[in-house]
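Incident review: delayed structure delivery

Summary: a single-chain prediction request sat in the queue longer than the usual turnaround. Root cause was a stuck worker, restarted by the on-call engineer. No data loss occurred. The affected request and its eventual output are reproduced below so the record is complete for anyone auditing the incident later.

Affected input:
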Amino acid sequence: MSKHFEDKLNEFRKAIISIQDSINNLTTKTENLERRKYEIDSSLIKVELMIQQFIAEAQHDVGKKIKVEQMQKSLADTKMAYKRKIDSIVNKKNRQQKAKSSIPSEIDNSESELKDGEQKMAILQAQYQSALLEHREKEAQEILIQIRQIKEMTQDIAKMLNDQTEDLRHADELSYKASQNTEAAASELKEADRLDAFAFNIFLKFLENIHCE
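Output delivered after worker restart:
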């Protein structure tokens, strides 16, 4: 095998390795993807031309034919890997675009659910405020009733105290009158005793005068 053929074989190997590296570096985020694909396609064409030259040189050399077959297989594997890579990138991009296209509807659904939630919250708040107001009004009515009852009890107690005061005043007056009547009766009794004594003395003198006669 000539040195020229070995050099060409090394050049082929380097070209294949370079193409494979370029293929492995392809992703959905690769910038200028179409330009990168064009560069890889051009490199593959150049490699194919190199193989055609090898085929012409290896017509009468079995060793060269084996090398050429190996290069053809390597090229075929590289093309297959390239195709799978491109298909994978295309599929991923399609899925991403589909996901992006579904986002607005999901956002709309989320906004709709959010609005429904806000409306439900507003209704619940209104119901709570109404129930709270009703409860406060009921408490206010109960407080007014209790105040009215306390006022009535206070009035009753005041009336009772006033009546008791009047009764005590009347009792004092009766006691005072009874005391005066008692004093008057005692004075009359004393006067009666005095008159009785006076009358008894007169009676005694009358008896004495009769005895003397």
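Verification: Residues 3-109 form a domain with the Methane Monooxygenase Hydroxylase; Chain G, domain 1 fold (CATH 1.20.58.70).
Action items: add queue-age alerting; document worker restart procedure.
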